Amino acid sequence: MAEQQPTNWSSELLDCFEDTNTCCYGFWCAPFLACTVSGRLGEWYFLPLCDALTGCTSLFCSVPTCIPPAALSLRVAIRKKYGIKGSHLKDMAATCCCSWCAWCQMHRELKRRTQVPVVINLQSQTTVNMQPPVFVGGMQPFPVMMMPPQTS
After folding, report:
1. Could you say which of 10, 19, 30, 79 would form a disulfide bridge with 84 (CB–CB 3.0 to 4.6 Å)?
2. Confidence of residue 136 (pLDDT cuts 50, 70, 90)
3. Residue 100 within any structural domain of the chain
């Protein structure tokens, strides 16, 4: 298996105004943004709320009182998954000193790295968004056979 070259984050920690939608989402609904990041990464959707329950992060103002373990683990997971340069020390500093900015940066990264592919049918001039499959309860559904359109 070929090892991928380390890359940088697609945006810096304080680049909130690069994606104002994420910035507003994180500012007004920080717990929901954190849960969205966890869900997009394929982890338990409510994992970030464990930081609030353990007292590491205030649920509303996102001010940490210690290093939030869920935020740190998700940040490290994103770095490892996409081969992003960094260290555990930098991840700890980001999640502890500016957890809101760290969540926004992780959200921006996942938005850029997990773009939904678009298929354009040139014959009928239609656009189809290819959505990833949703597995309910961890069970994979039966495969669906796609038949080519019938020509008359």
Report:
1. 79
2. very low
3. yes
Q: Establish how many alpha carbons lie within 13 A of residue 88's alpha carbon, considering only the half-sphere containing its beta carbon.
A: 4
Question: Does a structural domain hold residue 139?
Answer: no
Closest CA to 30 of 72, 73, 59, 65: 59
pTM across the whole model:
0.68
- Domain membership flag for residue 108: yes
| 55 residue type, one letter | G
Tokens 């409510």 identify what position? 46
- Which spans in 29-123 are helix H? 30-40, 49-53, 69-82, 88-97, 99-113
Query: What's the total number of domains in the chain?
Result: 1
Cβ-based burial of 67 (10 A; exposed 0-12, middle 13-18, buried ≥19): middle
In the predicted model, is pLDDT for residue 101 greater than 80?
yes
Mean pLDDT (the chain, rounded): 77
Contacts (Cβ under 8 Å, ≥6 apart) of 33? 22, 25, 26, 103, 104, 107
